[in-house]
Design goal:
Structural class: alpha+beta
Strand order of the largest sheet: 6-8-4-15-12-13-14
Number of helices: 20
Shape: globular
Strand content: 15-25%
Distance between the termini: 85 Å
C-alpha cells in the first residue's frame, strides 16, 4: 500500500481577510456555495430507523446492567444489603464499592491544582465509581446489578437495600458559603474548592475612581440538564483478549485513555467504538462511572454487558451544565467609554472536582467581548455542593462570559441614558487594530465587529422598532429589543489547541473511504467532510464512505467539542486529500509515461503539463489495485498554531402580555462571522439549535433542588420545561466571510455560536420590554410567573410612591 503522512503545524489560509462571500439563510432555504445540496447524507438512515446507536448493537449473550442510585443527596452509609438482589431470578451479579476495591479499581482522578483561598492546592475531591461511606449527591451510583434481561436487572436493583442516615445538605453556592453550612468535604473549608484570579486590582480601582459611572449586575446563569436525544449508554465485551467498549461518546480516544487508567490496562488492550451518537453538547466528553463499571464487569464476568440510561436516570446522573452566579462591575467615563471591568463567578461544581469543573476558566477570556476595555479583572470560584457535578455544556463558559459583559452593558446604557446599540458601537475593536490583545487571556486575529452589528440591525429592522413597540402597546403588549455581541474561542483549548488526524483510502473500484478523527454527534460532519473530499478529489459524493469513532483506525483524533470540527477536522481532511493526490501522482505518471513532477491534478483528472492525454482518479485507483490489492492510502494531520474566534451580533425581539407574563419571541436575527462557510445548510442548522438551547435556558429551563433535602424537584419532563419548535419564530441568519489565517480552510467554527449569543440577547430583550415599568433586571429563566410577579411588584412600588 502506498502511503503518505504529513503533519502541518502552521498552515496559512488561502485568500485575504478582506475577501467577502455573504450568505443569507432563512428557514428552509440557503444561498451560497453548494447551492445544489439536497440533504444530509446521514439523514436517510436516521429517519428510516437504520442508525447504529449503543442500544442497537446486536451481540450474543449480552447481559444487562442496572445502576442502583442513591435516593438521598447526603447520607452516611451504614450498610448495603445485596442478598435479596443476588437471589432474584436471572440476576448474575451485584457489585458494590467493596468489590471495586478488591480488584484495585480506585476513584476517578482529579488533577486540579488551582489554589484554595488559603493558598493550598485544591483538595483532590475525586469522583467515586461507586459510593462508599457517604452519599454525596442524589443519584450517585451505589451498586450495579447485572442480569440476563433488562427487566430482571431493574427488579434486582429494587431489592438492594441501602441502610443510611440522612445528613444536612447544601445545594447552591450561596448556601454552601454561608456561616455554619454543612461541608461536602471536611478538607474543604467553606466548600470553596479553588479560586482562580487574573488582572490588576489596583488598575481597576483607579478606573472606578476616574469613572463617571459604574454599572453593577448580580445575576445567575441557571443549572440545566443537557437532555441529549440519545441517553448515555455503554456496551463492553472481550474480543480475543482485548476489551471492546461501545460508547455514546463524543471523544473516543480520551475514553480509551481514561478507561485504561481506571482499569489498570494498557491503552492498546482497549478498543473504543462510537457509531452514531444522538447529541452530546459537551456532556458526553468525559469518562463516567458507568463506563468504568460496565467495562470492569464485562471483564470480570467474561461476558458482554450493556447499560442504557433512561431519561429520569439521566436527570440524576448526567453531568449538568452552567449554574454560575455572576457579580459584574463596569466602569465608564462620561462618554460611555469602557474604563474597567470586573467579573466574579461562583460556579456550582457539585460534589466532586475534576478538570471538567474548570470549563469556566478555560473560556473566561470571553468577558472582554469585542470591546476595548481599559483594564479587566476576573475571578472564578469553584464551590462544592451536594449536587451532581457540572461540566462543559454547549459553549462551556462562553455563554456565561458573554452574558456577563453583554448584560452589564445594557444595565449601563439604561442608567446612563445611552442607546445600548450606540454604547456598544462606541467601544468596538476596529478591524485595523487586529490582531488585538484584550489584555485578558485572548488575542483576536481578525474580525469586523461593527459590520456584524450593522447587518444584524438591518435584518432585525432596528430602525422600525419604536414603531412596532408603539403598535404592541396599542394591543396591550410590552415590546422589547435585546442584543448581544458574542465572541467565542474555538478549536481550543487556547493554551495548546488540539490536533486532528484523518486517513483516506481509495480502492480499485474507486470507492474512497475517509477515516476521521472528528466525531459527528448529529451536527452533519459526515455530510460536510464527505462533500469536502468529493469536491477536492473531483468525484461524486456517493463515491465517498465516511467512518468515525474507532480507536483502531487512527493513532489519535480530536473527537468533538469546542466548535473544532471544521477549523481543525476539515483542515486535517483537506491536508489528507492533498496527500492522497500526491500518492497517486507517481501511479498516474507511470500510466501516462511521464515523470511525477510533470503530473497535474484537477477536477478528478491527472494530466501531463503541456501534453495530451489524461487519466481519471478512478482509473489510477484501478491500476494501483492491480499491483497492490491494498490500493492507495494517505494520512494527514493538522496541528493548529492558534485558536479561532467566531463572533457575531444577535438581536431578539419579544412581546410580553403584562396581564399573564406570557412571553413571545417575535423575531430573532443574527449576523455571524464564522470565517469560510463550507456548507450553508449545516451552518444554519447549528445556529438554529444553539439559539434554541440558549433562549430555552433564558426563558424556560431550570434545574431545581429542594434546599432542605437536596431532592431534584425538576426531575423529569413533567417538571422541567424544554423549548419546542412553536416557541420560536423563523430565524433570520446572515454570515460574514472574514477568513482566519490560522487554518487552511479559513473557518472559525459555529457549533456553539448560537448558544453563546442567545442567552444574553433574550434576557436583554425581556428587560428592555419591562424597563418602562421600572424593572431593571430579571434573572433567568424569565418564566411567565417570574415576569408577572415582577410586574405586580413594580405596580405596587409605583402606587406606594
Amino acid at each position: 500500500m502506498l502511503k503518505a503522512n504529513t503533519s502541518i503545524e502552521n498552515t496559512r489560509a488561502v485568500g485575504s481577510t478582506q475577501s467577502r462571500s455573504k450568505l443569507v439563510i432563512t428557514q428552509g432555504h440557503a444561498m451560497g456555495t453548494n447551492a445544489d445540496y439536497q440533504g444530509r447524507i446521514e439523514d436517510d438512515r436516521f429517519i428510516t430507523g437504520r442508525g447504529s446507536y449503543v442500544s442497537d448493537v446486536g451481540i450474543e449473550s449480552v447481559a444487562h446492567a442496572q445502576i442502583v442510585r442513591a435516593p438521598f443527596a447526603h447520607a452516611k452509609i451504614n450498610a448495603i444489603n445485596i442478598d435479596d438482589a443476588l437471589a432474584a431470578p436471572d440476576v448474575l451479579a451485584v457489585y458494590t464499592a467493596a468489590d471495586l476495591a478488591a480488584d484495585g479499581i480506585g476513584d476517578q482522578p482529579c488533577g486540579v491544582t488551582h489554589p484554595r483561598p488559603d493558598g493550598q492546592e485544591a483538595f483532590q475531591a475525586c469522583r467515586r465509581v461507586l459510593a462508599r461511606d457517604r452519599i454525596l449527591h442524589l443519584g450517585e451510583a451505589v451498586a450495579i446489578v447485572i442480569a440476563e434481561t433488562k427487566a430482571a436487572a431493574v427488579d434486582g436493583a429494587e431489592l438492594v437495600d441501602i441502610d443510611a442516615d440522612e445528613l444536612d445538605v447544601v445545594v447552591d453556592t450561596i448556601g454552601a458559603q454561608s456561616d455554619g453550612a454543612p461541608l461536602v468535604w471536611s478538607e474543604v473549608p467553606g466548600n470553596v474548592a479553588f479560586v482562580w484570579k487574573k488582572g490588576d486590582e489596583g488598575a481597576l480601582e483607579t478606573a472606578k475612581t476616574q469613572a463617571a459611572h459604574v454599572a453593577h449586575l448580580e445575576s445567575h446563569v441557571t443549572r440545566v440538564v443537557v437532555n441529549t436525544m440519545e441517553p448515555r449508554g455503554t456496551l463492553a465485551y472481550m474480543d480475543q483478549g482485548r476489551l471492546v467498549v461501545r460508547s455514546s461518546t463524543q471523544n473516543h480516544f480520551p475514553i480509551r485513555g481514561g478507561l485504561a487508567s481506571m482499569l489498570n490496562m494498557d491503552p492498546d488492550q482497549i478498543r473504543v467504538l462510537a457509531g452514531d451518537v444522538g447529541g452530546s453538547f459537551g456532556m458526553k466528553s468525559g469518562v463516567y462511572p458507568e463506563d468504568v463499571l460496565v467495562s470492569w464487569a464485562a471483564r470480570k464476568l467474561d461476558r458482554p454487558v450493556r447499560w442504557i440510561s433512561d431519561r429520569i436516570e439521566g436527570f440524576q446522573s448526567d453531568e449538568h451544565g452552567r449554574d454560575v452566579r455572576l457579580t459584574v462591575d463596569l466602569a465608564l467615563d462620561g462618554e460611555g467609554k469602557f474604563l474597567g471591568l470586573k467579573v466574579v463567578c461562583h460556579c456550582n461544581i457539585g460534589a466532586f472536582l475534576s478538570r471538567r469543573s474548570l470549563n469556566m476558566i478555560g473560556n473566561f477570556g470571553g468577558i472582554a467581548g469585542v470591546y476595548k476595555i481599559g483594564t479587566i479583572v476576573g475571578e472564578v470560584h469553584g464551590i462544592h455542593t451536594h449536587t451532581q457535578v457540572t461540566a462543559p455544556y454547549r459553549g462551556a463558559g462562553r455563554p456565561e462570559a458573554t452574558f456577563a459583559i453583554e448584560r452589564v452593558i445594557d444595565v449601563a446604557a439604561h442608567e446612563m441614558g445611552i442607546d445600548p446599540f450606540e454604547l456598544r458601537r462606541r467601544n468596538l475593536i476596529q478591524p485595523d487594530e487586529m490582531p488585538y490583545d484584550t489584555g485578558f487571556t485572548f488575542k483576536y486575529d481578525c474580525g469586523e465587529f461593527e459590520q456584524n452589528m450593522t447587518e444584524a440591525g438591518q435584518l432585525a429592522n432596528r430602525d422600525g422598532f419604536e414603531t412596532r413597540r408603539a403598535e404592541a402597546a396599542q394591543r396591550g403588549k410590552l415590546c422589547g429589543l435585546g442584543m448581544s455581541n458574542p465572541i467565542e474561542v474555538a478549536g481550543g483549548p487556547f493554551v495548546k489547541p488540539g490536533k486532528d488526524q484523518s486517513r483516506l483510502h481509495i480502492a480499485g473500484d474507486g470507492k474512497v473511504t475517509l477515516y476521521s478523527g472528528i466525531m459527528s454527534v448529529g451536527q452533519g460532519t459526515e455530510t460536510a467532510f464527505s462533500n469536502l473530499v468529493a469536491e477536492r478529489l473531483g468525484i461524486p459524493v456517493d463515491q465517498v464512505i465516511y467512518k468515525q469513532g474507532d480507536t483502531d483506525l487512527l493513532s489519535a483524533g480530536r473527537g468533538n467539542g469546542g466548535s473544532s470540527a471544521t477549523p481543525v477536522g476539515a483542515s486535517s481532511v483537506m491536508i489528507t486529500t492533498d496527500n492522497l493526490i500526491e500518492v497517486a501522482k507517481p501511479v498516474a505518471a507511470e500510466m501516462l509515461q511521464a515523470s511525477s513532477d510533470q503530473i497535474v491534478f484537477e477536477r478528478g483528472t491527472f494530466t501531463v503539463a503541456g501534453a495530451a492525454g489524461s487519466v481519471h482518479l478512478n482509473e489510477v485507483a484501478a491500476f494501483a489495485a492491480e499491483k497492490d490489492p491494498a490500493g492507495l492510502a494517505a494520512d494527514g494531520e493538522f496541528d493548529p498554531s492558534a485558536v479561532t474566534f467566531p463572533n457575531g451580533c444577535h438581536m431578539c425581539e419579544v412581546e410580553i402580555d403584562p396581564d399573564t407574563g406570557a412571553i413571545e419571541i417575535v423575531s430573532y436575527s443574527v449576523c455571524e462571522d464564522i470565517g469560510t462557510v463550507l456548507n450553508p445548510t449545516l451552518a444554519q442548522g447549528q445556529m438554529h439549535g444553539g439559539i434554541v438551547q440558549g433562549a430555552g435556558q433564558a426563558l424556560l429551563e431550570n434545574t431545581v433542588h429542594d434546599p432542605e433535602s437536596g431532592q431534584l424537584l425538576s426531575g423529569s419532563f413533567m417538571d422541567y420545561t424544554m423549548p419546542r419548535a412553536d416557541d420560536f419564530p423563523s430565524f433570520q441568519f446572515v454570515t460574514r466571510d472574514v477568513p482566519t489565517k490560522v487554518n487552511p480552510v479559513g473557518a472559525k467554527g459555529i457549533g456553539e455560536a448560537g448558544s453563546v449569543g442567545s442567552i444574553a440577547a433574550t434576557i436583554n430583550a425581556v428587560c428592555d420590554a419591562l424597563a418602562p415599568l421600572g424593572i431593571t433586571h430579571i434573572d433567568m429563566p424569565a418564566t411567565p410567573d417570574r415576569i408577572w410577579s415582577a410586574i405586580q411588584s413594580a405596580k405596587s412600588n409605583s402606587s406606594n410612591h
